[in-house]
Amino acid sequence: MFKNYGWIVEAKLNPGQLENFKKVMNSQVNRALTEKGTLNYQYYMSDEGDVLVYERFSNADASHEHIENWDDHAARWIDAATPTRMVHLGDLPDDVRERHAALSPLWLKPLGGFAREQAADSRSTKDGDTQFENFGWIVEAKLNAGQLENFKGVMQDQVKRALTEEGTLNYQYYISDEGDILVYERFKGLASSHIHIENWDAHAQRWMAAATPTRMVHLGDLPQELRDRHAALAPLLLKPLGGFAK
Length: 246
Hints:
Blueprint: E1 5-13, H1 18-32, E2 38-45, E3 50-57, H2 60-71, H3 74-80, E4 81-90, H4 94-98, E5 106-115, E6 123-126, E7 129-132, E8 135-143, H5 148-163, E9 168-175, E10 180-187, H6 190-201, H7 204-210, E11 211-219, H8 224-227, E12 236-245
Parallel strand pairs: 4-5, 11-12
Antiparallel strand pairs: 1-3, 1-4, 2-3, 2-12, 5-9, 6-7, 8-10, 8-11, 9-10
């Protein structure tokens, strides 16, 4: 099992606001780099202006610090993009959840999996802005009626298998009290991604008997050969825009 303090924010870029959004994003990323407890602050965007921000912190206090710093940028951020969804990831205390009450975030708690905290830093700099590389995806599903124990069983088997995959950096399952499932997956590179898919195929039938996939999001500059392996789920492609993973 793992611990997590963080969230996902989704938004839609407002017309004509790409450059303004990049400016406020880069300003906030630079501020977040000074926050010792901010571990991930990663912006992704599709060609159609769909925005996803993945945020992770070392503890609840660190998340409060980040929220306070973000407040300084909030007006400019919302002028450039309209928030559409928020998902809380982890056993977040009430005082953190209350600070996002206006967005009515879905609350998903850790169910099983792992994060390899020793993974290499993926930060790079281009034209003075902080960027990152990513190979990974998010899978969302709905637990089928009466299938919680069966789902846990297949999840645990797949987690054990994934632990043998050196290039699988994150394989984290979350679930809500209502049976909403989210799986966050991240890999060292293309070869590691393919290995994980091949191993998952052995568990696919049991997995989908226990839960029904509802959405998939590809996170990174994924090549078509990799995207084709998930074609049945028609995944949305979001490419790195700016930010970092420590």
